[in-house]
Write a structure and sequence with these properties.
The complex is a heterodimer of chains A (about 280) and B (about 325). Chain A has 5 helices and 16 strands. With about 280 residues, chain A is α/β, with parallel strands linked by helices. Chain A folds into 2 domains: about 100 residues, Translation factors (Elongation Factor Tu (Ef-tu), domain 3, Beta Barrel), CATH 2.40.30.10; about 110 residues, Nucleotide-binding domain of ferredoxin-NADP reductase (FNR) module (Rossmann fold), CATH 3.40.50. The longest helix of chain A has 13 residues. In chain B, the strands form 4 sheets. An 8-stranded parallel beta sheet of chain B has the order 3-16-15-10-9-8-7-4. In chain B, helix 3 runs parallel beside helix 4. Chain B is of the alpha/beta class. Chain B has a single domain, classed as Aldolase class I (TIM Barrel, Alpha-Beta Barrel). In chain B, about 30% of the residues lie in helices and about 20% in strands. Classes of the chains: A alpha/beta (about 280), B alpha/beta (about 325). The interface between A and B is large, with 42 and 46 residues. Chain A: GO terms for molecular function: 2 iron, 2 sulfur cluster binding; flavin adenine dinucleotide binding; metal ion binding; oxidoreductase activity. Chain A: Belongs to the PyrK family.
Chain lengths: ~280, ~325
């Protein structure tokens, strides 16, 4: 048996709740024992549009949080932005609906074995999986600081209960509607130095991850980022979601963000080659 | 499975217990799907087309969903034949999968070299010669769009392989007359044809106002192209009734697979449907067997090309 997709299962999952939170939907799914194998950074691929849908591909969502303690047993929380036809369909699914899901997929954030100073950076609803990660890091005795950024306040996802699992939270908006005016990377060097950051975890748009990688590399801070690239299958067979990654020998490999990611070492992604409009040469 | 019902099929001299296959480029080299079903339970794994050298493929974005389909522009990313023979085939053999290796080259000689590397590798049931990948830099390299080029590739591979391993030529639907191409490759030594590869398409991103895919053009697959595939299978079976056809193009249910069998396919590949449903091939296989039984067929083989029989024929009767 292969180790790829080792714990992944295709199962029906009931929608336990679907609440609007600002511009996003918080959807809670009952996934039973599968929670045991779900870790921060993993994702779920969901069929959309119903049985006879013309939308033939699954939609991938980062797992925001999991719980095995509630009255329903194992549950998975997703934060979904109703931007496209598929995500709008998902956001319209009411309590009691059944979804066809495949999970857990992809790599997880690496958790340090010793207490360290961790900085979590989220862009837009990319912050969703960071709150679950914060809980895990806190349980390991880490100091957890978080900075979130978005173009405008309604696009910041920062639930009240999530704030409790971090030591500090800074918010940046590009239109100055709340928090600090600007981007998450504006004062990143100062924050890394002042708070003696050992590791950065990030999730959000690729341009943000790229900018963080540059700063993290120059300050020799470990940077684990959860990447976003359009996926057709989510299970490693279609080769559409690849990213150029530098191998130990200096050559470039096109790795699948679904099985070699979504969590990748930011220092190894060849950000300057992402999505180049020409054939990538070996 | 019913005791009397014979679900097996043959592609040339190669025998398979079921007529369901993965489609090249839609199952990688099998490892990823093994978590979702035992690979030995289907006819064979058709591996992603392998080239001589490692290849990184085209830049992203590489895909775009379209109505009941998708465009892909991968550009034959792969590890190259050496790594493939060292790692992928042994893994498939260890996991008791039957294997059809798909090969792709940039020149006639490259196909022959690939055939030479593969001919003594144990565990291969057949060779698919992909002469129709649309995602190459130079559309002139789509051998399957040209009769002489198609024949030259198949002839070169046949000479190297000798008579043992069945050769299946994968053809493009983007031609004026697919029957003439099919006749050409059979004449050059192909034991069967795989119908159809993707259709060349394009999506323009209305925000950037430029072609969406990194490679600009891509291959269209999924249910949207199924009628094109059924038509191609029907035409080729009508012209060359004894020729084994591996049918593919938008199959996502047993009903879709049955349509291709009736049109003249001896086997059916499930490709894009596996992206949306990793278990699709097993679902198709189970439903296809049920549908054949319900219609009174006592074997898969007796249903192949049934759509060509006159309207008085019934399942179970011998073809005249």
């Amino acid at each position: 048996m292969s180790t790829i997709n080792r714990f992944a299962k295709q199962v029906p999952a009931h929608v336990l709740s679907n609440k609007r939170v600002g511009q996003y939907h918080q959807i809670l799914l009952n996934i039973g024992d599968l929670v045991k194998h779900c870790h921060p950074g993993n994702f779920v691929a969901i069929s959309v549009g119903g049985e006879n849908s013309g939308m033939i591909l699954r939609r991938a969502f980062a797992i925001s949080r999991i719980s095995d303690r509630g009255e329903y047993g194992g549950t998975m929380e997703l934060i979904v932005a109703p931007h496209g036809t598929g995500s709008r369909w998902l956001c319209s699914q009411q309590e009691g609906a059944t979804l066809d899901i495949v999970t857990p997929l992809g790599s997880a954030f690496g958790i340090p074995t010793e207490p360290v100073n961790a900085l979590l950076i989220g862009g837009g609803y990319g912050s969703a999986p960071l709150f679950g990660l914060a809980e895990v890091l806190k349980a390991r005795g880490c100091r957890v600081d978080m900075i979130l950024g978005a173009s405008s306040t309604p696009k910041i996802y920062a639930p009240l209960e999530g704030k409790r699992s971090v030591n500090s939270l800074k918010i940046y908006t590009e239109d100055a509607t709340s928090g600090i005016h600007g981007r998450v990377t504006d004062s990143l060097r100062e924050i890394i130095a002042q708070d003696q950051i050992d590791v950065i975890y990030s999730c959000g748009p690729m341009a943000m991850l790229s900018a963080i990688s540059t700063i993290a590399a120059s300050m020799e801070v470990v940077h684990q980022c959860a990447v976003e690239e359009a996926m057709a299958c989510g299970i490693g067979v279609c080769m559409t979601c690849v990213l150029p990654v530098t191998k130990d020998d200096g050559s470039i490999a096109m790795l699948r963000s679904c099985i070699d990611g979504p969590v990748m070492d930011g220092a190894k992604v060849a950000w300057n080659l992402v999505g180049q409009g020409r054939e990538v040469k070996a | 499975m019913s005791a009397e019902f014979d679900f097996s099929t043959k592609l040339g001299a190669a025998w398979f217990p079921t007529p369901l296959f993965t489609a090249s480029g839609c199952a990688s080299s099998g490892r990823e799907l093994a978590q979702f079903f035992p690979l030995k339970s289907i006819g064979a794994v058709v591996t992603k087309s392998i080239m001589l050298k490692p290849r990184l493929g085209r830049p992203t974005p590489r895909m775009s969903e379209t109505p009941s389909g998708m465009l892909n522009s991968i550009g034959l990313q792969g590890p190259g034949i050496d790594a493939f023979i060292a790692n992928d085939i042994p893994w498939l053999v260890e996991n008791n999968a039957r294997v059809i290796v798909s090969i792709a080259g940039e020149t006639v000689e490259e196909y022959a070299t690939l055939a030479r590397r593969l001919r003594s590798v144990p565990g291969i049931s057949a060779l698919e010669v992909n002469i129709s990948c649309p995602n190459v830099e130079n559309r002139g390299l789509v051998f399957a769009c040209d009769l002489d080029s198609s024949r030259a590739v198949i002839d070169g591979v046949r000479r190297i392989i000798g008579g043992d391993l069945p050769i299946i030529a994968k053809l493009s639907p983007d031609v004026t007359d697919i029957v003439s191409i099919a006749k050409g490759v059979v004449d050059a030594g192909a034991d069967g044809v795989a119908l159809i590869n993707t259709l060349l398409g394009m999506v323009i991103n209305i925000d950037t106002m430029r072609p969406h895919l990194g490679g600009k053009t891509g291959g269209l697959s999924g249910p949207a192209i199924r009628p094109v595939a059924v038509r191609a299978i029907y035409q080729v079976h009508e012209a060359i009734p004894k020729l084994p056809i591996l049918g593919m193009g938008g199959v996502r249910s047993g009903r879709d697979a049955l349509e291709m069998i009736l049109a003249g396919a001896s086997g059916v590949s499930v490709g894009t449907a596996s992206f949306g449903n990793p278990h699709a091939i097993i679902d198709v296989q189970t439903e296809l067997e049920r549908l054949l039984l319900e219609r009174g067929f006592d074997s898969l083989r007796s249903a192949v090309g049934f759509a060509h029989r006159d309207s008085q024929s019934a399942p179970g009767e011998d073809a005249s």
